[in-house]
Amino acid sequence: MADAPLMVADAPLMAGKSVLVTGGTGGLGRATATGLAALGARVGITGRDQARAAAAAAGIRAATGNTAVAAFAADLSSQAEVRRLAAQVAGTYPRLDVLVNNVGGCWAHRHITADGLERTFALNHLAPFLLTSLLLDRLIASAPARIVTISSGVQARGRIDFADLQGEQEYSGQRAYRQSKLANVMFTYELARRLEGTGVTATVLHPGVVRTSFGAEDPVAHFALLVRVAGPFMKTPAQGAAAPVYLASAPQVEGVTGRYFAKGKPKTANRAAYDTAAAARLWQASAGLAGLAAP
Ligand SMILES: NC(=O)c1ccc[n+]([C@@H]2O[C@H](COP(=O)([O-])OP(=O)(O)OC[C@H]3O[C@@H](n4cnc5c(N)ncnc54)[C@H](OP(=O)(O)O)[C@@H]3O)[C@@H](O)[C@H]2O)c1
User: Which residue in 93, 171, 177, 189 is the catalytic one?
Assistant: First the structure.
């Protein structure tokens, strides 16, 4: 895929800043990485396949003229790979100014990860939870720093089923996806509370409905139909990336934390996201499932 040229400006906003965008080989992640590279950031992207990630990094370098774009390979549904990625990133970037948690997916059928976990919950929620936790000291040491997580408008209809977080009793692709996207919001809100006073902010966003390869591996009927019917009216990846690029870089949102953004503005999220006891409970459960010491 050729990226639209977006050459680095003369006095770029993100010069001297290091950014990691998960899932930068296509879709929103690639467009976000391109936008941030065009602002002069040193950018790391990730993907499951080294050759595909390297080709995407080369495409972003060519489109922006920014040579400081690197590729990392890791399947984020595997916690061992998340840990390896975090160590590699920490070894590559002495400072990390922005982490964009973008990777996510949706599957019609229940799939199990290498760790024996349901894939939607593992990839969409536990992976950013673990990666952020492992890179937190580096982000705090680089403050002011930002953590931006891509959720979805479907969070509004999500419910955290503490009795069956991984759809063992009953699985629905849509329900698992909605739960994971609400978990992104609850994680961000709880993270923002825990990061108070550190100079590291945490925000979460809905990018809009964007024409990408989302859900292509095992399509949920609802999404496949949406793309067939609404494809021509969906946002381009570059349009969808406007929100993550803004939250990752804009001076206007410096210091803004613990907020959910949609259509470029802070919005009220699912009422369940404001339940601090549930957010703490989700944090505890996630720490247990990700093999982190409970806080
Ligand atoms: N598209 C929309 O309309 C929309 C709307 C709301 C929210 N979102 C959210 O936006 C985010 C990005 O979605 P997208 O639409 O850009 O999807 P996409 O086109 O499917 O891109 C997904 C990216 O994640 C990577 N990826 C997938 N599985 C991975 C894994 N197991 N480990 C590591 N990387 C993996 C892919 O890289 P490789 O294939 O190279 O590994 C690719 O770079 C998701 O969190 C999604 O929930 C999307």
Answer: 177
